[in-house]
Design a protein that fits this description.
Length: 365
């Protein structure tokens, strides 16, 4: 574990990365009722109703439908300008299941070192707080695992924004028969250019790491120390015509398992992702091209991977795919937003077309 932590910490220090979600579209969330009144306790409720229907018929991912909701009542207390405490619980419920709703307690403490740098320990909003590419962190997983527990360090500067986080997913004691599991990531976004003509050019750098192991546990499954890196360039411009904005992006991704033995038999790979994102009124449209060779991301969208999630012996080493998304969203009030997202994938090597769609209501009371 110490060796894996050292490697991940070094990678975070050297390669920490950040990216706004220019390379994918996802359902927007209603802004929370954040208040900065010192010495006052206030209450809020965040929630989402979702219906996801993925009509996948190819060999990569089996199709499925996921209807449900999650709701998070919480209380927050600001002791000063530099310290706040949040406590509550998250309830996740899938429709049509006999099982009880899933309950996640939430407790988070945030320290602000100055106006730009803050540290949160305890509950972290899974996936949505990370703001990583969908290829590295699957945004749909927010409906499966809405709360992470660990820490997140954020820096919000003018021409530079970034965050580093660790989520402890499975804790072990001496003599356990299960592995220790944690994930980590980093997200840096330096701005190269912000011109008077309206063009912004950024260099997104991102990293995720997954570790399964543990020196004090006697577990049977194979260990893993997997790292994914993303680097690229993005250019965006606000427009005044019938288009509201135009964004162009090019990303290069790397996959590496630091363990010699890998359960999938794939130890390293890479990928290229580039495309354009357009906005017009309540509509947003994205089209992009993906080319991957032996690429795996344990936390990312499985549609981009070089391994099937239900046909383990299928050879998918080389992938070439077109992805397109169309989203319509509208804030019906200041604290509630509705969105409809259409998502499609066309594998040019397999001549396979898969698609999905989703309805979403987000609210903050």
């Amino acid at each position: 574990m110490k060796k894996a932590l050292a490697i991940i910490t070094l990678t975070l220090a050297l390669c920490v990365s950040d990216l706004m979600a220019w390379s994918d579209l996802w359902h927007p969330l209603a802004p929370g009722r954040e208040k900065n009144d010192i010495g006052r306790l206030y209450f809020g409720v965040n929630g989402s109703m979702f219906f996801i229907n993925n009509e996948y018929f190819g060999d990569i991912v089996e199709g499925y439908t996921m209807p449900g909701h999650y709701v998070e009542p919480y209380a927050k207390y600001n002791l000063s300008d530099y310290f706040s405490l949040k406590a509550g619980f998250n309830i996740l419920k899938y429709y049509g299941m006999d099982e009880d709703a899933e309950f996640y307690p939430v407790l988070a403490a945030t320290i602000r070192f100055n106006e730009k740098l803050e540290l949160t320990m305890g509950g972290i909003d899974a996936n949505t707080d990370y703001d990583l590419s969908d290829i590295l962190v699957y945004k749909e997983d927010n409906y499966r695992d809405p709360v992470n527990n660990g820490f997140q360090l954020r820096y919000l500067g003018g021409s530079f924004k970034g965050s580093v986080w660790i989520s402890w997913d499975q804790f072990i004691r001496k003599g356990d028969t299960i592995p220790e599991i944690f994930t980590a990531g980093a997200n840096l976004r330096p701005t190269l250019l912000k011109s008077e003509s309206g063009w912004n050019i950024d260099v997104p750098l991102q990293m995720t790491a997954f570790h399964r192991g543990g020196q004090i546990s006697d577990f049977s499954e194979k260990g893993a120390s997997i790292i994914n890196l993303l680097g690229g360039i993005e250019a965006g411009k606000d427009l005044n015509g019938w288009l509201d904005y135009l964004e162009l992006f090019v990303h290069y991704l790397i996959y590496k398992d630091l363990k010699e033995e890998n359960s999938m038999g794939i130890n390293k790979g890479n990928g290229f992702f580039g495309g354009v994102n357009l906005g017009a009124g309540s509509f947003e449209f994205l089209v992009a091209y993906w080319s991957g060779k032996d690429f795996i991301s344990t936390q990312g969208n499985p549609m981009f991977g070089s391994a099937s999630d239900y046909k383990p012996y299928l050879d998918l080493s080389k992938r070439e795919m077109l992805r397109s998304q169309l989203m319509w969203s509208r804030f019906v009030t200041e604290r509630a937003v509705f969105s409809l997202l259409l998502d499609s994938y066309y594998d040019t090597r397999l001549s396979q077309f898969d698609y999905g769609w989703g309805l979403h209501i987000s609210f903050a009371l």
